[in-house]
Write a structure and sequence with these properties.
Blueprint lengths: L4 H4 L3 H10 L4 H19 L2 E4 L1 H16 L11 E5 L26 H8 L3 E6 L26 E2 L5 H9 L4 E6 L5 H7 L2 E4 L19 E6 L2 H11 L29 E4 L9 H16 L3 E4 L5 H26 L6 H4 L6 H21 L5 E5 L6 E2 L5 E2 L2 E2 L2 H4 L4 H6 L3 E9 L3 E8 L5 H15 L9
Length: 464
């Protein structure tokens, strides 16, 4: 069997089955991935560091291991990328900042290590917003990322390169970081799956710091089943990482086929008032489909993003400042005034913000007492222009407006997944988001999987 461009956008689990059966080899898969990357990368600008020769060498090792009966599991021999915030020993980790282009860590991040031990093949480090900041898909040092569905638009951010690669077959999976929506928003506009698990479910040790109590790592994949497979590899306690949970890691893939009939999905209609009409139309059709597969829609009232913004902003700035202080002092020109001002925020303000955060967590838990999960759009706009955000109702949107559906779950630390929800005009993908209580990733993924199987939106790929 030849590895065609069509095969390169197949789900990870299907590629894994073909490798297990010997119908393709990892070397063939990697060679085809390299060829496709070389053909498309000038249009997409999805990589900061591309590693074709290293990947080919690794593919031969993986094939030899498989021949010896030493397959490491479903990810063995699968080509992947990592957002360029995860340390990779001997390979530059830039966090999207040009002055770090020669920064080569001496050890791997925990995410990097787990994926390597699972037998994956690293194709390279994905482009992102500088310092993983923002959702614009823009980078002044390494160039802007382009949306594979329409190169006049952005793939959103900050994990825009990762989402682009998964959507186009430049990687079968990628792992990004999320502290406001950076995994889920790019997933929405690129028609892939982006999972932000519960805070502490995946170790962020060795991940470029933004805000340690808000930072999450999460996979971007082509299907919900793929996300479940990858999550089981990445989840679990890391000795020395005090943010990771010691809770047992379920077999997420095995739980996908459980029943969803009677699942109560909470929706806050007030949140959707700031969304483009095309997004609202796709979302309403998605709600109808969820009801058809047995879910019940329940209206409720959640803490609003507007209420949470100040606490989120203060916590983020203080923790950002703590993590970046050495670079801020050495390279102040790399940071704007707001970022440098993080060093001047009084500790009492940070502590008050953390207390407010706990209040929001309690309020959210109370609001969810009558439901099993929450559902919303992922991103309030259909396409993100590099020229700036659009206006809705005569008012120009700002960054917090477009993070209104995703940011709360970072502050609350709850699991949330974006998956293909449908399409607006001009073949523009629109994602829906399903969220749950802490450590209920299995239930979140089960409902997402049921919707995915009932709709087939995930089978559409960009014509590129």
């Amino acid at each position: 069997m030849s590895v065609t461009p069509e095969l390169l956008v197949a789900p990870l689990h299907e590629l894994s089955n073909l490798l297990d059966k010997g119908e393709i080899t990892s070397e063939e898969l990697v060679r085809a991935t390299i060829e496709r990357t070389e053909a498309l990368e000038s249009e997409l600008n999805s990589y900061i560091t591309f590693l074709p020769e290293r990947a080919l060498e690794a593919s031969r090792r993986r094939d030899e291991e498989r021949r010896r009966g030493e397959s490491k599991g479903p990810l063995h021999g699968i080509p992947i990328s990592l957002k360029d915030v995860f340390d990779t020993a001997g390979i530059a980790t830039t966090a999207g900042a040009g002055f770090l282009r020669n920064h080569e860590p001496t050890t791997d991040a925990e995410v990097t290590r787990r994926l390597a031990e699972a037998g994956t093949i690293l194709m390279g480090k994905a482009n992102l917003n500088k310092f993983a900041g923002g959702e614009s898909g823009e980078n002044p040092d390494f160039g802007n990322m382009q949306n594979p569905w329409n190169r006049n638009y952005s793939p959103s951010g900050s994990s825009g390169g990762s989402a682009t690669q998964v959507a186009t077959g430049l990687a079968a999976l990628s792992v990004g970081s999320d502290n406001g929506g950076s995994v889920r928003n790019p997933a929405s506009v690129c028609n892939v799956v982006g999972l932000k698990p519960t805070h502490g479910r995946i170790s962020t040790e060795g991940m470029f710091p933004r805000a340690y109590s808000i930072d999450h790592a999460g996979p971007l994949t082509r299907t919900v089943k793929d996300a479940a497979i990858v999550l089981r590899v990445l989840a679990g306690h890391r000795d020395g990482d005090t943010t990771t949970s010691r809770r047992e890691v379920p077999d997420y893939e095995a739980e996908l086929d459980g029943p969803v009939q009677g699942t109560k999905l909470g929706i806050d209609r007030e949140l959707t008032r700031v969304a483009e009409p095309a997004v609202t139309r796709v979302f309403e059709r998605a709600l109808t489909k969820l009801e058809e597969i047995g879910c019940e829609i329940v209206e409720l009232s959640l803490p609003t993003p507007e209420e949470m913004t100040e606490a989120m902003y203060l916590i983020f700035l203080c923790e950002w400042g703590a993590g970046h202080e050495p670079w801020m002092r050495e390279r102040p020109e790399e940071y704007d005034g707001g970022a440098r001002g993080a060093l001047l925020i009084p500790a009492v303000d940070y502590l008050k913000a953390q207390r407010e955060r706990r209040t929001f967590q309690v309020r959210a838990a109370q609001a969810m007492k009558g439901v099993d999960l929450l559902v919303s759009p992922t991103y309030p706009i259909v396409q993100r222009s590099h020229r700036g955000l659009p206006a809705i109702g005569g008012r120009r949107l700002d960054t917090m407006d477009v993070l209104r559906f995703t940011m709360p779950y970072d502050l609350l630390g709850l699991p949330a997944v974006s998956l293909p929800g449908g399409f607006a005009k001009d073949d523009a993908p629109v994602g829906i988001q399903i969220a749950g209580r802490a450590f209920q990733e299995a239930r979140v993924l089960r409902t997402a999987y049921a919707y995915e199987q009932a709709t087939q939106w995930h089978l559409r790929h960009p014509d590129i």
